[in-house]
Amino acid sequence: MPTFTAPDGTRLAAHVSGDGPPLVCLPGGPMRDSAYLGTLGGLTAHRRLIRLDLRGTGASEVPRDPASYRCDRLVDDVEALREHLGLERIDLLAHSAGANLAALYTARHPDRVARLTLVAPSVYAVGIQISAEDRLRVARLRGSEPWFGPAFAALEAITAGRATPDSWEAISPFAHARWDETARAFEEADAKEKNAEAAALYAAEGAFSPADTRAALAGFASPVRVLAGEFDISAPPQVMARYAELFPNAEFLIQPGAGHMPWLDDAERFVALVLPVSSP
């Protein structure tokens, strides 16, 4: 497990696995231990995955300054990793909230990113709006599932601003293609693997300047792939299509039957979809 030092002296860790050209991977959560990415459905058979544990998560050190958890401040950590790896340019893959960091890094260092893959990306960094109906429309696709009634009611409460503490747990099935023991274990691990303090500061005031980021991404000509899960209420496909349109050279794909972690839902299909843009 390589370790390296961020500009402010924080020791950071990255996990390397697999064979092939390197692919830097940024986790979501926000601020969840990168362990949940695993092999990304067996992508390690084709690429050498370099999973960054963001500061204060996984094997990375807790910083002296909690304000450094802010997403825009983390851009320097990604650049420090690139320099540590000795790579002039990196292929970058980001999942969910990690896409905010990937967008900011790409906007600030476009010449350092060779290829960009965004999996179910969060939209805060680029300022795209997701409406209640965007989420509910996708949720209705699961109407035949045995858990649908209570989960949909909880989602309606959340989107209407009437959420209770139990509402967020109730909608967990929507994140997965199958609400089975594996999916339940994944959700239970989230609380243990996420740094709650860091997550609360990740999108703090000043973290994002969407108009500036969109303008920068409009000039990013390298290959981009945006992947959405058909059933993902967190990153609805119709919204992800708009995300892809921010780039001049992006391809948008939907993984059928997948939720927010598509590599868990159909590993073989996931690898087939993301590999083309993440390969030299």
Biggest β-sheet: count, sense, barrel? 8 strands, mixed
The N- and C-terminal alpha carbons lie at a distance of 24 Å
Number of strands: 8
Gross geometry: globular
Give the % helix: 25-40%
Number of helices: 11
Structural class: alpha/beta
Order of helices and strands: EEEEHEHEHHHHHHEHEHH
User: How much β-strand is present in the residues?
Assistant: 15-25%
- Rg to the nearest angstrom? 18 Å
Unreliable stretches: none
Going across the biggest sheet, name each strand in turn: 1-2-4-3-5-6-7-8
Average pLDDT level: 96
List keywords for this structure.
280 residues; alpha/beta; 8-stranded mixed β-sheet; 11 helices; 8 strands; 35% helix
Produce a short descriptive summary.
By secondary structure, the protein is an alpha/beta fold. It has helices at 71-85, 98-108, 132-139, 148-159, 167-170, 181-193, 196-202, 210-217, 237-244, 262-265, 267-274; strands spanning 3-5, 11-17, 22-26, 48-53, 90-95, 113-119, 224-229, 250-255.
Tell me what you see in this structure:
- With 280 residues, the protein is α/β, with parallel strands linked by helices.
- The chain has helices spanning 71-85, 98-108, 132-139, 148-159, 167-170, 181-193, 196-202, 210-217, 237-244, 262-265, 267-274; strands at residues 3-5, 11-17, 22-26, 48-53, 90-95, 113-119, 224-229, 250-255.
- It contains eleven helices and eight strands.
- Strands 1-2-4-3-5-6-7-8 form an eight-stranded mixed beta sheet, with helices on both faces.
- Helix 9 links the parallel strand 7 and strand 8 (250-255).
- The radius of gyration is 18 Å and the shape is globular.
- The model has no long low-confidence stretch (mean pLDDT 96).
